[in-house]
Specification:
179 residues, eight-stranded antiparallel β-sheet
Length: 179
């Protein structure tokens, strides 16, 4: 049994994530569905991450602090299916037989992505012991001072960036900071 502890968004982000953007304002996204869902949160903790799906493909995953009643509003979306992974419900909205959006509510955090694989990985990272999240696997990135009243913070995992074979700039343009 896992010890009860205070959970942060870092507990949901894989150590091999290429880039993390964190802000106290909702992350602007080109995808209208994801943007609508992220704006359901009334909290001020938002994160966008770029992660590898496979050797040649990358996708964004979003994390936002959210209240349970705000998550319940997602359940009214049509064509939502649910399945369990390690006791956590994964919700998927499908379009033309393919997953268009997947999400979980894990310890007060809404985690969503166009990729179910990234959602499943967030559950595995959360349940890992010892923790293998982005912050524990990349401590050198957290030695810098952060400013609370700016446009947000960006952490770049240069070890993963060097391994990429796909031009990431097109995907990164979906994060407003890089437009």
């Amino acid at each position: 049994c896992r010890e009860s502890k205070e959970v942060s968004f870092w507990d949901l982000i894989d150590g091999n994530t290429v880039l993390v953007y964190e802000s106290n304002k909702p992350v602007l996204v080109k995808d209208g569905l994801i943007d609508t869902v992220l704006r359901l949160s009334s909290h001020k903790e938002y994160v966008a991450c770029l992660q590898s799906i496979n050797k040649n493909s990358y996708e964004l995953i979003y994390v936002a602090k959210i209240a349970s009643e705000e998550v319940e509003n997602l359940g009214v979306l049509k064509k939502v299916t649910a399945r369990l992974l390690d006791g956590v419900s994964i919700y998927e909205l499908k379009k033309n037989g393919k997953v268009d959006l997947a999400w979980i509510n894990l310890d007060g955090y809404l985690v969503l992505s166009k990729s179910s694989l990234l959602i499943e990985n967030a559950i595995r990272v959360h349940h890992s012991s010892p923790s293998k999240n982005f912050k524990t696997q990349n401590p050198q990135l957290f030695r810098f001072v952060t400013i609370k009243s700016d446009a947000g913070n960006v952490w770049v995992n240069y070890n993963q960036l060097n391994k990429t074979s796909v031009p990431l700039f097109q995907i990164m343009q979906q994060i407003p900071l890089f437009k």
